[in-house]
Design brief:
Elements: E1 2-6, E2 21-23, E3 26-27, H1 28-36, E4 45-49, H2 55-61, E5 64-67, H3 79-87, E6 96-99, H4 109-118, E7 126-133, E8 162-172, H5 174-180, E9 188-192, H6 203-222
Parallel strand pairs: 1-4, 1-6, 4-5, 7-9
Antiparallel strand pairs: 2-3, 6-8, 7-8
Length: 228
């Protein structure tokens, strides 16, 4: 298994979010790498970034650095082209764990790796992390989804779950990558994570994530279980 961190330096909405200080001087990238090296060999982890100046981050943690052409960090570039370009710089034909730093609360990497190891590869060609949600949602015509208006109104606990696809953690076989060149295979396994999720797309998301992450770290310290 190889791990590829999609750690671009440029960010349109939250400037420098992957590398700027997030919590107690550590960046989102630092937090992610610290978790990965607990479950993987450092030599199997690759940081893909378009700026040479961040090679030092990889060197600090003893992981590999791959300089990515800036073209493959642009929103206008298709995911297919990004996946193909990144993969050409990753040696061997091993499966790939794709990760991004933008969900610092996720800490189930060992569980994900164990799950993948035991999956029937004839049935599943990829694994993707999703977060079950129970919300009062309306469709495009303002009709309720999974509940009704009136005295038969359900409590939120009784709602059917919907799922948020985070893109933060994916595993794909090399065969799957060759065939679909995308972050989800033709036959994915959906790994349900019940952790709090904050996909950092805005400065408000950034502040919210800091608050929740800091709370979680304080709880772990009090319990004598500071994993990070």
């Amino acid at each position: 298994m190889k791990a590829v961190i999609l750690g671009k330096a440029g960010s349109v909405r939250v400037k420098g979010k992957n590398y700027r200080p997030f919590y107690e001087g550590n960046s989102l990238m630092d937090i992610l790498v610290a978790k990965l090296i607990k479950v993987m060999n450092r030599r199997d982890i690759y940081l893909s970034c378009e700026r040479e100046e961040y090679r030092g981050v990889a060197e600090k943690w003893g992981i590999n650095f791959v300089l990515r052409d800036e073209t493959y960090t642009l929103i206008s570039t298709s995911n297919v082209d990004v996946v193909r370009n990144v993969c050409k710089d990753i040696p061997t034909e091993e499966d790939i764990l794709w990760v991004t730093p933008v969900e610092p609360m996720f800490d189930e990497f060992q569980e994900v790796l164990d799950c993948w190891a035991h999956l029937d590869k004839e049935k599943f060609d990829s694994l993707n992390v999703v977060y079950p949600q129970k919300r009062f949602l309306l469709d495009q015509n303002y009709n309720p989804i999974g509940f009704g208006f009136g005295h038969w109104h359900k409590y939120s606990q009784e709602l059917p779950p919907t799922y948020q696809l985070s893109w933060s953690v994916c595993i794909l076989s090399r065969k799957c990558i060759d065939e679909v060149s995308y972050m989800i295979g033709a036959h994915p396994y959906w790994y349900e994570c019940n952790a709090q999720v904050v996909d950092i797309d805005t400065e408000d998301d950034w502040e919210l994530a800091i608050s929740i992450y800091g709370r979680d770290m304080e709880r772990k310290r009090k319990n004598g279980n500071d994993r990070d």
